[in-house]
Every structure is written in C-alpha cells, then in structure tokens.
Design a protein that fits this description.
The chain is an alpha/beta fold and about 500 residues long. The chain contains 15 helices and 18 strands. The strands form three sheets. An eight-stranded parallel beta barrel has the order 11-12-13-14-15-16-17-18, surrounded by six helices. A seven-stranded mixed β-sheet has the order 1-10-6-7-5-3-4, covered by helices on one side. Strands 2-9-8 form a three-stranded antiparallel β-sheet, covered by helices on one side. A hairpin with a 4-residue loop joins strand 6 (about 90-95) and strand 7 (about 100). It starts with 15 loop residues before the first strand and ends in a 16-residue tail after the last helix. Bound molecules: acetamide (ACM).
C-alpha cells in the first residue's frame, strides 16, 4: 500500500496522515512558538523559532507558558504529553494554530522536522496545509556513521550533517574517530595520539582533530536536535595512527611510520604487550567521559593478520574497558565470532562474510544494527560514472538504498533482534563537504525511510514522487546532491 498523502512529500513517510480541507496556517510576524519552561523545552522552543524563521524569513518569537495555558491563535505550540511512546509525536495544523505534541523532547524534535517539511510557499507567504500527522518510528536506532579519520571533517561540517540527519529523523551520529591514517579526538590521558597523528590524512591531505571542548560542543549541538553521538575507536586493527603515536604498542617498541594510503587490514595491537591493556583502558575511559550517551563503539573489523585467539582476547579487553567506564559495547560484525556479553550491539556490514556467527550471536542475545555494504554504504558509487567513491560492495543507485528490509536481510534472525539501521560514509575519496553531501543525497533520505517507516508503508514509486520535492530544498540550503536519473526532479 503506498504511503498516504504523497502530495505532502514527507520523507520519511509517516504512519498516519489526515489532510483537512480548511485554509492553511500562514507563518507571519504574529507567529509565536510556545513551550513549557523545562530546560529541554526552552532549548527546543529556541530551535523551533530558528527553524521557522530560517524556513520562512519571518521573525518568529518564543513565549514560555504554564502547562495549562491554552493555545492562542497564531501559536505554534510544542507540548509534552502523557501516554506517547519514545519519539512518537503528533502534529496538528489548523488554519489559526499548530500543535506539536510528543512524550519526550526527542519526539518534539521529530514533530518539528515534519512541520518543517510541511511548510511551502504559496502566494508569497509560507504556509502549512491543514493536516493531522500521527507518527512513530519502526526502529529506535537510525544512524549515520561518518569516517572522519581518512579525511577530517570538523565541527562546522558535522553540524551541517547533524541538521540534515535531524531533518530526516535520524538519531545516531556514529563517528569513526581513528584509523590507520589519523586520530581525530584529543584525549587527556594520551596526548600524543592527536599531537602526532591528528595532522595526517589520506594522500597527505590536511588532517585535523577535535579538542575535548569542540567535541563536547558538537555532542551538545546534536543532543539538542535529538541526535546522540556514538564514538568509535577502531581496535584491534585499523590502528596505525595509534602505533605511530606510541611505539610501546608495537612488538619492536618503535613507532610506525605515518600511513596515508587506503589499504586495510595490516595494522594491529598485540595482546601480549604490557602497554596494550592500559592503553585500551585509558582511551576508552577518556572517550566514555565525553559521551553522555550509553554506547561506545570498539570497531573490531578487518583484522586480517592476527590469529583468532588473540583477536578474541583483544575484543574482550576493549569491551571490558568500555563496560568498566559505564558504557555499552558496539562493534562491527566480526566481533560476533568472539564470546559476547548479552546486549552487545553488533553492526552487520559485509554481505560477503559467512552470516552464521552473526545469526548465532543474535540468538545468544546480541542486538543487531544493519548496515549492509550493498545498500547502506553511501560511499559506494551510484554507477560506473560516479567520480567519487569506491565500488567494492557494488554500485548503489537510489532505489538500491531504498528497496530493502532490515529485519529480512539475513535469514534466521530472531524476532526483535534488529534494533536499527545505520548508513555509513567512508571518506577515502571524499575531501570536502560537497563531496560528502554528493554521496549522502539523495540516498540518506532513502535509508532514513527504511529505518523510520514500517515496511508495509514503504513504496518505491511513492518515495520517488515524494523525494523529488526535496532537491530544491537541498539547493536552497546550499547542499550538493546527486540528481539520480531514477527521480523526475523537475516535477518536484
Ligand atoms: C568496515 O566497512 N570495515 C566496517
């Protein structure tokens, strides 16, 4: 069944939409955002006024109100309501007022994203059509993983990414903060990581790293938009930047050379070296300390030159370090070959790998995050002519990124084991925000719908028609994007 209300061009498609037949709500100088006085609501009120002002050019103000105060004509009221699930929300647009209600601040942010998409220009004014939207996500983890290690993307660029994620109701920004080519987060216990390996990147391009303050500010910016940051320190492979900074982590006791190529699988920690476990404790302890969220990612992928017993020991050491710092462990698919604590989040990515250990881990209580390379790896080229990107998982056109169901991708997964979907963008070939956006858009909108909208409400033809209206919005925001030939963009 096609998603309802195609004409509203909402992406991701909401659960229920009832279009009214009255006049639209007009955003004007008299429009006021009203919110309660809790700190989360105050910051949301400011965000809502900013979003409406930016979208329309009108100066929209904020008024703080008592819980019981009724909505006035001209108000855009944000309300925390009892009885709605996490991220569930309702948007009601009447000719003279708008009400956005949700059970949590995150739900209000999702409702705000819907309201933003409802706005359109009509006869020189910005209006929202009369409508009731009731909505909730299919999956609780809807992520984008950004590799800031191969090429560095700093706070300003990542704020643009966070805004885009919030617009499509994504809620996890996973940052791949370390790899062979560079280390991107300064850590107080191990200052040489950023000092010696922060400046390098693929091809000798400029690197960079986050100071603690910059990182915490980004985490707070994302949190205000309902996006949690999950930091990844990739071990026990992909560690040349660490070995270049601390020679005690190598069997020779000497630092390695900096690495600026794009091969994978050659670098590794050593389980028997006395420096290894303290390193893991320090690093994951510091990373946990700047992570208000529950999760820290330990990597675990592509360790191609290590025996399995040593790999399992190192995964256990890293996992212990994360848990002793009070966080839950996330790791790439390969960690499913090792003993895991129930509840560990395992991220599926390599469709070429035997899925049996992944299925077995799920049956033993692991929670699963789905990032299949052939669908959700948004650094893959769209087709053979795409100048940017890689091809090892094939070409991913817009429809490929859209037409898949995370719970049915790997046969034999227990009911309820899939907790979410994450797109990834690896940056071996991506040097600028325009490069990054060209690979993300329009495909990120497709993966966002796979993550948010229930499968019975997803329909490619309907998505194609809706997403066509988003190209002009990306243009208006100055975002680069790929005009996939699978969409009639000119009718958007
Ligand atoms: C990965 O793409 N190596 C997780």
């Amino acid at each position: 069944m096609p998603a309802p209300a195609t004409s509203l061009r909402l992406v991701p498609a909401p659960r229920s939409v009832r279009v009214g037949d009255g006049a639209p709500f007009v955003v004007s100088a008299g429009t006021t955002v009203t919110v309660g006085v809790s700190p989360a609501e105050v910051s949301l009120g400011v965000l809502a006024a900013e979003v409406l002002s930016r979208a329309t050019g009108a100066t929209v103000e904020v008024r703080y109100r008592d819980v019981a105060e009724p909505t006035q004509p001209g108000d855009v009221a944000l309300r925390l309501a009892e009885g709605l699930g996490a991220e569930e929300y309702r948007v009601e647009v009447d000719p003279d007022r708008v009400e956005v209600s949700a059970g949590s601040p995150e739900g209000l942010v999702r409702g705000l994203a819907t309201l933003q998409q409802l706005l359109r220009r009509e006869d020189g004014a910005f209006v929202a059509p009369p409508v009731v939207v009731e909505d909730a996500p299919a999956h609780g983890w809807r992520g984008l993983s950004v590799d800031v290690a191969r090429h560095f993307f700093g706070p300003d660029e990542l704020r643009v990414v966070v805004d885009l994620m919030a617009a499509y109701k994504l809620n996890v920004l996973h940052l791949h903060l370390s790899d062979d080519q560079g280390w991107r987060l300064d850590l107080p216990s191990r200052p040489a990581l950023a000092a010696r390996s922060g400046g390098t990147a693929v091809d000798g391009d400029p690197g960079g790293f986050f100071t603690t303050e910059e990182y915490e500010a980004l985490v707070a910016y994302a949190a205000a938009r309902g996006v949690r940051v999950v930091p990844e320190i990739d071990v026990p492979g992909h560690v040349n930047a660490a070995l270049h900074a601390y020679g005690e982590l190598t069997p020779e006791g000497e630092p390695t050379e900096a690495y600026t190529g794009i091969d994978v699988g050659f670098s590794k920690l050593a389980a028997d070296l006395p420096a290894t476990e303290p390193f893991l404790r320090d690093v994951f302890g510091d990373v946990a300390a700047v992570t208000p969220g529950e999760y820290v990612h330990i990597g675990g992928d592509e360790v191609l030159t290590m025996g399995h017993e040593e790999y399992a020991r190192l995964v256990a050491m890293a996992s212990d370090a994360v848990r002793s710092a009070g966080k839950q462990v996330v790791g790439w698919q390969e960690i499913a070959t090792t003993p895991l604590e129930p509840g560990t989040v395992v991220q599926y990515w390599d469709t070429r790998m035997d899925p049996a250990p992944f299925v077995a881990a799920a049956r033993a209580g692991a929670r699963l995050l789905m990032s299949p390379g052939s669908k959700a790896y948004l650094d893959m080229k769209y087709d053979a002519d795409t100048p940017l990107g890689l091809e090892w998982a094939g070409h991913i056109e817009l429809r490929d990124a859209y037409d898949w169901e995370p719970t049915a991708l790997v046969p034999g997964l227990p009911e309820g084991s899939v907790i979410g979907v994450e797109a990834t963008v690896w940056t071996e070939t991506l040097r600028s925000l325009d490069d990054l956006m060209t690979m993300l858009l329009p495909r990120l909108a497709a993966v966002a719908e796979v993550a948010w909208t229930r499968p019975e409400q997803r329909d490619w033809e309907d998505f194609r028609a809706r997403v066509a209206a988003h190209g002009p919005r990306w243009d208006a925001q100055g975002l680069a994007w790929y005009p996939s030939p699978q969409v009639d963009w000119h009718v958007g």
